[in-house]
Design a protein that fits this description.
The strands form four sheets. The chain has a four-stranded antiparallel β-sheet, with helices on both faces. It has 15 helices and ten strands. The protein is of the alpha+beta class and 351 residues long. It has a domain of 227 residues: NADH Oxidase (3-Layer(aba) Sandwich), CATH 3.40.109. The relative contact order is 0.15. Belongs to the QueG family. Monomer. Its main location: cytoplasm. InterPro entries: 4Fe4S_Fe-S-bd, 4Fe4S_Fe_S_CS, QueG, QueG_DUF1730.
């Protein structure tokens, strides 16, 4: 195939979108690599120290906002989305309203999306290779310095909402993103347009007020950061605000009016494993390290390890209505080898 033929490139782009849908992606768009506006936004975010201890956000210089620096020769980015919503909104709200239940962000209930989507993107690249022969590419799923939301917005998959997640008018925001960087001069799609209007529901609902202004999230206050990214002690003043959220937080998505258009996932791998959507705090707090590893095998949850798992649950138990069972369970961890666990258990017993 003559790669500099616009008609052939347009035909290939249409085929790529068809193949993407056949592979289980709900949408696929194509964009160029100019991320100058997003680069400025990222620079300001880092300057405000909103990234907290996530040093990797600034470690790679401009590679995150200049795709050709990350993968030389990149001219276009193929951006894809895959729906992951495993249960209706009312079930999630019911879980949040039961303080003795362990609330886990719904993206993490099933199989780790990184592996599943990476495999699908590789299959898409193989289809392209079978059609045109060798071409330059590299696939990413949250696995390298990539501004995935900015790229998805430019590729027409939606717009970045005030909570900093990507929103699609027909599908809400319960989806994963992935990319293929490529040297193919494919035609680009129209970028997404903003449709948040005057709505500020996500800012108002955030338990820790982490959305400090529209489109600005201070990660240091965000429950997802505190329960997943943060390795040390959760700031004491924020602990009561975590409620029963032990891994991530979905509040800003739950309240978003656009999510009335969200559809349940068709991917069985994203359905809850080991009843992780209905587990009791006391039960998951009792898991030893081996049971934790077994129950979270193949899951994104595993990345925090058993120590931070116990840290998070101790906080949730401290926020739950006091009972003899909770106090006794917390006391069993007072001699835990981890100082981090012991500190949060002591706090929970005092509150």
């Amino acid at each position: 195939m003559t790669l500099n033929n616009p008609d052939l490139m347009a035909s290939l782009a249409a085929q790529i979108k068809t193949w993407g849908q056949e592979l289980g992606f709900q949408q696929l768009g194509i964009t160029d690599t100019n991320l100058s506006q997003a680069e400025t936004h990222l620079g300001n975010w880092l300057a405000n120290n909103f990234h907290g201890s996530m040093d990797y956000m600034q470690r790679h210089g401009h590679k995150r906002s200049r795709p050709a620096l990350l993968h030389p020769g990149t001219q276009r980015v193929i951006s894809v989305r895959m729906d992951y919503l495993p249960e209706p909104e009312n079930q999630m709200n019911q879980s949040l309203e039961k303080p003795l239940l362990a609330y886990i962000s719904r993206y993490a209930l099933g199989r780790d999306y990184h592996k599943l989507m990476r495999s699908r993107l590789q299959k898409l690249a193989d289809r392209i290779h079978a059609e045109i022969g060798d071409f330059g590419y590299r696939a990413f799923v949250d696995s390298a310095p990539v501004l995935e939301k900015a790229l998805a917005e430019k590729a027409g998959l939606g717009w970045i909402g005030k909570h900093s997640n990507l929103i699609n008018r027909k599908a809400g925001s319960w989806f994963f993103l992935g990319e293929i960087y490529t040297d193919l001069p494919l035609p680009v799609d129209k970028p997404g347009t903003e449709h948040c209007g005057d709505c500020r529901a996500c800012l108002d609902i955030c338990p820790t007020h982490a959305i400090v202004a529209p489109y600005q999230v201070d990660a240091r206050r965000c429950i997802s950061y505190l329960t997943i990214e943060l390795h040390g002690s959760i700031p004491e003043e924020l602990r009561p605000l975590l409620g029963n959220r032990i891994y991530g937080c979905d509040d800003c998505q739950l309240i978003c009016p656009w999510n009335r258009f969200a559809k349940l996932t068709a991917e069985k791998d994203f359905n809850p494993r080991h009843r992780l959507n209905t587990q009791e705090l006391l039960d998951v707090f009792a898991w030893g390290e081996q049971e934790f590893l077994t129950k979270t095998e193949g899951s994104a949850i595993r990345r925090i390890g058993h120590e931070r798992w116990l840290r998070n649950i101790a906080v949730a138990l401290g926020n739950a209505p006091k009972s003899e069972m909770i106090v006794n369970a917390l006391k069993t961890k007072l001699q835990h080898p981890s100082e981090l666990v012991r500190e949060h258990v002591k706090w929970a017993l005092e509150h």
